[in-house]
Specification:
The complex is a heterotrimer of chains A (250), B (378) and C (530). Helices cover 72% and strands 2% of the residues of chain B. Chain B has 378 residues and is mainly alpha-helical. Classes of the chains: A alpha/beta (250), B mainly alpha (378), C mainly alpha (530).
Chain lengths: 250, 378, 530
Amino acid sequence: MAAPITPALLYLDNVTVSFDGFRALNALSLAIDHTEMRAIIGPNGAGKTTMMDVITGKTRPNEGTALFNGSHDLTYLDEAAIAELGIGRKFQTPTVFEMHSVEDNLLLALKQKRSPLATLLSRRTAQERERIDALLERVRLTHQRHRRAGELSHGQKQWLEIGMLLAQQPKLLLIDEPAAGMTDQETADTADLLRDIAKTQAVVVVEHDMTFVRDLGVKVTCLHEGSVLAEGSLDAVSANERVIEVYLGR
Amino acid sequence: MKTQTLLDRQSTVVLSLLTVAAIVVPAMNGLAAPGSALHLSDHLVPLLGKYVCFALLALSVDLIWGFCGILSLGHGAFFALGGYAMGMYLMRQIGPRGVYADPVLPDFMVFLNWKELPWFWHGFEWFPFAALMALIVPGALSFIFGWLAFRSRVTGVYLSIITQAMTFALMLAFFRNDMGFGGNNGLTDFKDILGFPLQSASTRIVLFVLSVVALACGYLLCRWVVNSKFGKVLVAVRDAESRTRFLGYRVEHYKLAVFTLSAMLAGIAGALYVPQVGIINPGEFAPANSIEVVIWVAVGGRGTLAGAILGALLVNAGKTWFTGVLPEFWLFALGGLFVFVTLFMPHGIFGAARDLGKQVSRRLASRRPPESLSQAAE
Amino acid sequence: MTTLRTIFWALVLLAGMTSVAMAGPYEDALPRFAADSYADTEAAIAAVTSSGHSLSLRVIEALRDGQLLVGAGQVVIRDISGPLVDAAKGQPSGANAGSLKPVRVNNRVRRAIEAALGNLTLLSTDPGTRLEAARAVFRSRDAAALPTLDKAIAQETSPNVRKALRTARAAILLNKADASSADRLGAVATLKERGDQEALALLSSLPSGTPSDIAEAAGKATDSIRARLALWSAVQNIWYGISLGSVLLLAAIGLAITFGTMGVINMAHGEMVMLGAYTTFVVQELIRTYAPGLFEASLFIALPLAFLVAGVTGILIERLVIRFLYGRSLETLLATWGLSLILQQAVRTLFGPTNREVGTPAWMSGALEIGGLSLTYNRIAIVVFAILVFAVLQLVLRYTSLGLHVRAVTQNRRMAGSMGIKTSRVDALAFGLGSGVAGIAGVALSQIDNVSPNLGQGYIIDSFMVVVFGGVGNLWGTLVGAMTLGIANKLLEPYAGAVLGKIVLLVGIIFFIQRRPRGLFALKGRAVEA
């Protein structure tokens, strides 16, 4: 394989997506390093979700480059292939398999062969059990392991989804509004958890909750109308005149 | 783990009931004296056999609809294709005993002035080949169809309607004489299967027992599939398709695999159905038939397997009774059933029973001192 | 027939005025009728016809009607009213009816009579009769008519008749071995201009021994006519396609509205069409019984009623069933299928299982001929009607508040809801509107399809195909979808046959959905993705 074009783990350059003339992303460029945590903020319609869609293969950009690990062109891959590469995604509203038990949710997410034949013939190994136990412990759902995921509280579902992401052992986690609908305590715990994860993996967090972003204490990128408006520490970004203009109106 | 044992109990019940049926029906037909209350008359045996075939068809629909959320309104097509494969074998078995006494050509071909057997009729004189085709033809069609549909992510209502269009197109095609499958009249006037006369009581009993065995095997196969991790992925696809995709599963491969498996089960059901009813014609492809199968599953309870079997048996028994007693009201009843079940019994009989069971156990639990609850709440 | 008779009397009058009664070819020919030989009769017909005598037509007509009697050296015409007329003089005859018997005719003679009548009426004063005569001559190609034809062409004033006369002349000349080369080439040109199936038949079956230059010209002319006919038949097929497309549009447009706003397939949609057709039937029955004078207007009376019947049924279905299945589109599909079974059976119980006769008003029967096209008025009416319904729906959706709400809910239900639009009320009304339009479609379809309880079933798959093909949320998509499918269907039919053509189309649509799962005119953007 050719030498990586970029040392960054995720590299977006000049990415444009338009729906019927409306530009959801407008020449967006962004780079995320290995084991970096980045918070993405921006008003509604700034293109945060569309950006996630492009990275995970749900939406094909009209223009631009999206590279992962320096060599994989994400614009040519489908969701499953991108997930296999090591990008995990948590949706805005917690999406878990409600009819499955908590344990089975994690089992399905574990890094294993994904082909139909492999799953048809697979047996649960002791190793898998240990992995699941460890994950349950980490997202504090050990006592809920046999409950149906649909019966969990909102916050528990968020955590279960993060647990599923971890089970995939991704190199990059995309997390869309993890703090939405959580109590203050849960929010703080979530921030702790994410900081812990970021020690070994790259994390991109999209969030509206500024307290939460402050808690994370990481570099912030502010999007507006599909492109990057400002980038830097939260204090620097929130002092930026254009950011203030966008958020407060003129 | 608790769910596992519950399912095993269901399998035990289903298998024992099927075993009982496979013993009692032949006994009541063959051993009980005619005229006694226990006697099952000869014409009822193929009727019951027909129900069993329908149950297998319902099972195949439940596998994809109940567990993977694919509502096929064209499964009757796979059933009919399996039936045609078997019908072609039975047709070839008639030999010179047909009306026109042609040793090779079936009657309808002689009637159409055909001089030789079309290429696709070759090999069907050989039972193993025909049996294989009853599996392969529905399997291949479903594979191609599914490959096209699932790859382009046609889902939901769109998928349902194109499956219906598929069976509709096949119906039109099979109505044509020059398709070479007997046109309007289909294939009929069968004489014997593997040398055993189809009219004899003993052949019918054997066919009935074979159908029950096929249903039991089909049930076990489906049970095995849905209990495996593969089955868990199917349910995951049903409940949150894109989540499954983002976990790295190729949803289209799973759908394709289960759709093809289901079509082959339907093909087997059709192949067993034809020798028992003695005819297969393009009417089997009618879209209405395929939708009716779905309602059998809905009545029993989708996603339960046993419910599909129960629903198929109940609705068809009801149909037989109604068309005998109040023929003009059958469509009212069937239509009403569609509406009633979707509105008031979304989980079918099995779901209703389960809910009832839960209520009872909850009431029982509330009388007990709640030690276990405090633990769960933590 | 009546015109013929008036002409005849006019001629008689004319004869009376001129009153020329000298012996000539006419008088010489008459006795040959009495010879009781078919050959003589034929010769007599030819001679009488070419004589130009004022009684010729009367004699030949009498011969055709078996009223030309011969006996005892006399040739007598028996008048319709009874009295006998001397064929030679046109005066009442004193012949004894008992001694007379009709001149016998065989098929050969009958053909000669037809040809002779054609020739004789060429000079009639009524243009319609002359046109008929010219056509008869064109078919008979009787060389004896040539002098009369030439005379007729010279004095003809109506361009239409003149054209017919000229083609008749051309038909004769083309096959006349002793005609001049220039005449025959001119004939080829005239026939080429006529350019229809008959001209083609004439040009392609020249008698043997035709000179090569004429044969060559005829060959070229046939090629050009064939090409033109092929074009006409393509145009005709496209017309059939447009007509089928209009039917599909009528059936599908209501479905497009309900599917667009609510995302559910109403499997009972076809039954709404059926209800509309049965409403038409009932309206016509009532009119026949109580006000037969209104029959011509029966369809216009049926339209609002069909809209009401189907629309109210639709609203009932929405309120009683579909409302409770919101968000479960597959269950909706099953429930509405059940409703369709119930409606079918209800109609079967009420009206019986057989086809019901729905009459066609007089203004809708007949056909319009344009060039090589034949457009039946009922098809034209349906095309026009479909376009009207389409236009009205567009206006309703664009300019009424209901339309605004429906469009809002179609594009983004949740947003519409939070803007204060009562989505459930919009659902019910949209469902009523879609069903009502289906009912109207039923009125139109009652004119071209069998009105039976199964009427609707045939349309549901087709309608859905149209909606899928055209895309949801845009009626233009439905229009384009319906027309494309209609025309494709009819263009495929000549090659693949009706059934196979339909199969090809269904398979084509299945492939189309693979490529564009949301149809031709799909809404794009986040609202739809979600």
